[in-house]
Amino acid sequence: MSAPDWRIDGKDWPNAETSRFINAGGLKWHVQVFGPGTTNAPPLLLLHGTAASTHSWRDIAPLLAQNFTVVAPDLPGHGFTSRMARPSPVAVAKSLTALIEKLGLPPSLIVGHSAGAALALTMAQHSLARPRAIISLGGALLPFPGMAGKLFPAMARMLFVNPLVPSLFALRARKPGEVPAFLARSTGSKVDAEGAALYERLMRHSSHIGGALALMANWDLKPLQAAIPSLDLPILLAHGAKDATIPSSVATTVAARLPNARALILPGLGHLAHEEDPVAHAALVLDFAREQGIID
User: Fold this and answer.
1) What's the CA gap between 222 and 23, in Å, rounded?
2) Where are the domains of the chain?
3) Global confidence as pTM
4) Does CATH place domain 6-291 in 3.40.50.1820?
C-alpha cells in the first residue's frame, strides 16, 4: 500500500513544526504538541474522526494552545501513524493512553470529533484517561439504527479484507474534483480549498483509506452505548445542524442519557463544523473549560 511519506508530505504539512514521532502502545505515532507544556497550560487531547488526521485541527489547535498544552495525534492507520491489526474502540483507546503516558501529558480535557468523540468516551468509560470533562463534536456515539447497524459494519469488513479496495478508492481520489464533491455530499460541510486539498492528499494513499476501513470494520459501539448512563463527568455535545454524516439528533439523544451533559446544535454547519468555523469552536472549547474550572 502507498502511504504518506513525512520526508515529502511533511515538508508543508499544517503545523509541521509541532510534529514528532513516538513509539507507544505498539504503534509509531505521528503527534503534534502545541503550547508551553507548563502547569498553567493544562493538557488538552484532540482526537480526529475517521479518514481525517491532525490536519483537521490545523486552525483550531494554535488558538487553543494559548491556554492549553494541545496534543493532537493521527489515529492508527491514519495520516502518518502506523496501522493497528484490529482497531476496536477499546484497543485504540488503550494505545492512545500509552501515547499520552509516554508524553507525560494526561489530558484535563478531551475534544473528540466524530469517531474521536467515541474514543474519548471509551477512554473515560474504562478509566484509561481521567479527564475532568469531554467535548464531543459531531460525535459518532451510537450504533446505526435498525438494519443499517448490521449491514454497515459487515460491508466495511468485506471492503477491508479485500486488498484491492483501498487502492481502488485511492485511485478514484486522484480524479479532479472527486474528493471535494465527496466531502460536500457526505458531510454537509463547506470545507475551504486548503482543507479539501489536504483530504485529497491523504485519500490518494491506499494506506490511509485502509486505516479508515479498518477502523470502521472493527467499530462496535454497543458497549459504549450501554455504559453512557454511568459516565458522570461533564460532557458537552456540539453538533452541526446540517451534518449529513451523523444526524444532530444523536447529540440530543445521548445528552438525555448522560447524567451531566448538554447538547448544543450549531446552525448552518455540517459534520466538519470545527473546520468550517475554527474561531467559534475555539471559543466554545475555552468557554466550556472555564465553566468547568479547567482554565482561568
Assistant:
1) 30
2) 6-291
3) 0.93
4) yes
